[in-house]
Amino acid sequence: MDKSNNDVFELFKKVEKNTIMIGKLDVSKGIFPLKGTEHVLMFDIIPLCDEPSIIKKEKSLFKPIYINENKYSGFVRNQISNVGLPPLFNIKDTNYEDQKRELVNFYSDQFIFFSPVFQYERNEGDYHKNLKILEVTNIPVALSLNTKFKVIPKVNLEKRIFEKKVLNGDFFVLDYAGDIYDNLDYIMCDSYLYFSDSWKYNKRDPLSWQCSDPTNAIIERIKIEKKDKLITCSRNGMSIVFIDDSYIQEVREKRENLLPEVRENINTDSLEQEEAEVITIKNNDEYEMLESFRQNVINNSLCYDFEDLINLHICAKSSPLTILAGMSGTGKTQLALQYAKMIDTQEVNNTLLFLPITPSYTEPDDILGYLNPNNGLYTPAETGLVDFLINAQTNPDKMHMVLFDEMNLAQIEYWFSPFISVLEKDLNSRYLTLYNENSHCINRTTYPHQIKINNNVIFIGTINLDETTKDISDRLLDRAFVINLKKKKFTDFYSQDSSKNNGSLEICDSAVLYNQWRSDNEPITAFVTRELDFLDELHEIISKYDEQKGVSFRVLKKIGTYINNIPTNDESKKMIDKKKAFDLVLKQTVMKKLSGPDNRLNDLIGVIQEIGEEPKDSKIIDLFEKYSDISDFKECRESLKRKAEDLLTYGYTR
Fold first, then answer.
1. Where are the domains of the chain?
2. What number does CATH give the domain 286-495?
3. Closest CA to 35 of 65, 1, 62
């Protein structure tokens, strides 16, 4: 099987990252050496729960022995110290018989939580079902090694809110990927199990689920009174519970329908709560939210063009990192905080982290923390960033925002380097590594070796460009949008005072809703051939002067993603015209990379004799004229003009 060209391989990798199972040691085999060796020790685990449906569907791809014997195999050498191995276990010990006895004693009569690992053997042409142990735990009195478990996702919502979403057909987030599990019977919320024959996942976001036909669907709930009939893995951040399947069959006799009067009670309770809130939530439409954003900015005595607010929102949707630049004192930080309010992130519930950057930050440990090799403890930094990201991982239904204030007081690429690589990856592969998974860490339960950065986390930074700050590298510019906020006139600030209005605001109250606003169209679909020709020529012009600059495929993707994410108004028209958007996003990406001394840039940017003049003899401006049909490039021209003024004054532009 050619895994490089097979979509199933990608699904298998997703299973590895998003699945937790429970099983027991196959004591009939115990611990045994790999065939043909003495020192490579193995063991088999028999699952006590169902596998993801994709495994059953593709069972022909696996070595038959794994299907016939219903097992997963583990290599002792691949397990983590103090997690999948006994305390003080010496993996380098050559007394293999002692090792076998110690491991059998450790695994026997225990529940073993594990994640699947699928190893493709090219010589054999099939997959092996291996595993990584997540936790070895004692068996509760009410359960046994013969217990068969139902894998049930738990929703991180209040019972009232969850029931309202179910009955309204709204989406909610589960740690249960629909494209690998497919079948879903029960969802747990609070102390109840909810059954429906209409659970359906969003194919654009397989972690998002809804009751697709609440009017005609069977919707039942069951009270779970015997909590000792369920078990969870304490070392895993996923909201998954394992419940004794026989107990579920028993309590099904006590199930109750969500009747119309229950629906009425839910709606009444919701209305009373909304009336009590300072900010009332209506229909959460994207256009209405942006209009409220504009009003909220005015109410807080900030003065910005509506276009800047829309631009910020598009950038936040399109890129994990957005940077706000502009002269000091114009309210960049306050603008970011007002946007945080519009996506319902707050410091009080740990969904907003305000993190001022200091010049002393020189490495990732300064903002994250470190594993102390002397005592085996992971020590988080005082910034609180690690705890914040763990909270975001365990609450995927809520948006979270990190605000890096004055982020270029220190060299960004030094302290932010792990995020630069992680945020570029596919959503299912965004894992921030805190320390090596094989390292000894006593508080691993609290601080796992990796944290998943989901699409419910937004990073926004503010920067100033003066003699006290650091330049931004092309590496970072390739991965972020940099917005130069425009200062409006004082007369505009004065006149907007009469527009203040303390009425209700439309906010985005869930990550599911925010992600529905994100386009899933391929970035290349945003362009017509004429625009691609322009970008090709722009790249050729710039790369002749500096082969490290220009328009890369990454930048092309960013531009396309931005254009695809432009919201529409109540008349279904784009809130920023495409020609204007093309100009804006080009300024925020390619133009930002034009920096350096005058002897390299004069021909590109153009030259002026006095401040205020329009640049002359500019190859880029000549290209703008050639392609004036796709945009007037007003913003880019203004950017080149300022750079030409820098070259005249300082002989250098940044």
1. 3-137, 149-264, 286-495, 519-654
2. 3.40.50.300
3. 65
